[in-house]
């Protein structure tokens, strides 16, 4: 049985100590796109929503999973070629800096699509 997180604060606090600053910065970057995000836990990972979910993220041993949805992934497929990805998600390796400008652009697009 896996642990059920109750908040993004708890998720970050219980993450590996080395990854906490990255998760905090990722959270700040996402929130800088839209001050009206509702932060919650969805699918047991940090979720940012407006009228509907815009994006999620999750920490793994060697990467950060970022989940902006299939439509956003399709729009940014050329910019994401260097990363392992799936229909609605991308993996950003922890041994490289996260591409915050790209992430913010993806979140901005997600906000527009959710309107």
From TrEMBL:
Residues 20-108 form the YdhG-like domain. InterPro entries: YdhG-like. It holds the Pfam family DUF1801. This is YdhG-like domain-containing protein. It comes from Erysipelothrix larvae.
């Amino acid at each position: 049985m896996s642990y059920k997180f109750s908040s993004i604060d708890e998720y970050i606090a219980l993450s590996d100590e080395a990854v906490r600053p990255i998760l905090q910065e990722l959270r700040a970057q996402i929130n800088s796109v839209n001050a009206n995000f509702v932060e919650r836990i969805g699918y047991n990972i940090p979720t940012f929503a407006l009228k509907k979910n815009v994006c999620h993220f999750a920490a793994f041993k060697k990467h950060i999973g970022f989940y902006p949805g299939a439509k956003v992934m399709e729009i940014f497929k050329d910019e994401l070629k260097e990363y392992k990805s799936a229909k609605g998600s991308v993996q950003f390796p922890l041994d490289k800096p996260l591409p915050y400008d790209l992430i913010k652009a993806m979140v901005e697009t997600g906000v527009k699509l959710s309107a």
